[in-house]
Specification:
The protein is mainly beta. 4% of the residues lie in helices and 37% in strands. The protein is globular. The mean pLDDT is 92.
């Protein structure tokens, strides 16, 4: 008989930068998406946040739950947790979806069974986000690529 809470099928594991926090989800995750919203960009310090979402009953802490610190934004109805030692954002929960948990895609070591093919909050997208523009090598700096100068921004969306 398997122990309570043990996975019954394939899992995807992940953790924070310092290794104090470890978790796993049952594969496949429910869905995955890119969030261009200002709050998620700031919470993760990135151009856009890529999340994997799943049911809480398909998520398990393996190590370090006690190493987490939480930030609750009561107005937005969101709670974000991060490792108090290394600062890695670990979970993102919404009060209106209490049985669901979201985890940054970058924390997983393997595929999660869902590709991030959805984009949310595009109207909040940062105008400095790299969007697949053509790149050319930067002369004198091997390995560094640069975007070609643009005469005018084609997309006027301003994320500031
Ligand atoms: Zn950590």
């Amino acid at each position: 008989m398997k122990p309570a809470g043990a996975p019954s099928g394939p899992v995807a594991r992940g953790g924070c930068v310092c290794g104090a926090v470890r978790f796993e989800i049952d594969v496949p995750a429910v869905w995955a998406w890119h969030d261009h919203g200002l709050a998620s960009r700031r919470a993760q310090g990135c151009a856009y946040a890529t999340y994997v979402g799943t049911w809480k009953r398909r998520f398990r802490w393996l190590e370090g739950e006690a190493a987490l610190t939480r930030y609750e934004d009561a107005e937005a109805g969101t709670t974000r947790s991060f490792c108090r030692r290394c600062g890695t954002p670990v979970t993102y929960e919404k009060a209106r979806s209490p049985r669901f948990i979201n985890i940054p895609r970058a924390l997983f070591e393997t595929r999660t069974g869902r590709e991030p093919r959805y984009h949310m909050n595009l109207t909040e997208r940062a105008d400095w986000t790299y969007w697949g523009e053509p790149l050319g090598p930067l002369k004198g700096y091997p390995g560094v690529m640069r975007e070609r100068p643009r005469k005018k921004r084609l997309d006027p969306v301003d994320g500031e």
